[in-house]
Amino acid sequence: MIGDCCVCMFIKSPDKNNIPNFKYYVQNIENLVSKLKNGNYCFIVSYYPKDKEKEFKNWLGNDIGYMPQIGKDLNSRVKNTFIQAFSRGYKFVVLINCETPLDKSLVEESLCDLEECDAVIGENENGGFYLIGFKNCTFSPDIFLNVNLNSEETYHQLLDTLKGKDYLVKELPALQTNLVNS
């Protein structure tokens, strides 16, 4: 299964001036990389902006994969991350955000769920998602077309879109980002 599965961590370059709870953000990214980089899947950091690969490698190391986020807005960058991962030959791809602490077991279970389901999705407390995944044969680039990914309704819009396509969806437990003031 390792050659078939990919976990992409969606991340933007840390900027103290533009990221609330900067210290936690950086800490959580480092914890996620440490926990998730040695799984039964390929682990890739999907980074933004696209010209920051060297900085990410210097920070997070060379023992994980890297892939730039491509697109003019968040929706196109998310969509294109899936397209890039599937074009590399993976059958199952999950995308995680870098703000929610995740257990490795939850990520691995979501990949296994994709053997039986068309999609997996987990909601975070701000109405977004902490994880979304597809198998190659069920992913459709238009899934993100009419969804506002910067909204308290993101999760429900995505869920409605998936169910509107008659997808069998595994809903993961809701989690909190646990962003704390530092």
Description:
- The structure is a single chain.
- The chain has a seven-stranded mixed sheet with strand order 3-2-1-4-6-5-7, with helices on both faces.
- The longest helix is centred in the N-terminal third of the chain and has 15 residues, at 22-36.
- It starts with a strand and ends in a 7-residue tail after the last strand.
- The chain has a single domain (2-174), classed as Alpha-Beta Complex (Spore Coat Polysaccharide Biosynthesis Protein SpsA, Chain A).
- The protein has helices spanning 22-36, 53-60, 74-87, 104-113, 154-164; strands at residues 5-12, 42-48, 65-68, 92-97, 119-124, 129-135, 169-175.
- Helix 1 (22-36) links the parallel strand 1 (5-12) and strand 2 (42-48).
- Helix content is 32%, strand content 25%.
- The protein is an alpha/beta fold.
- It is built from five helices and seven strands; from the N terminus they run E-H-E-H-E-H-E-H-E-E-H-E.
- It is globular, with a radius of gyration of 15 Å.
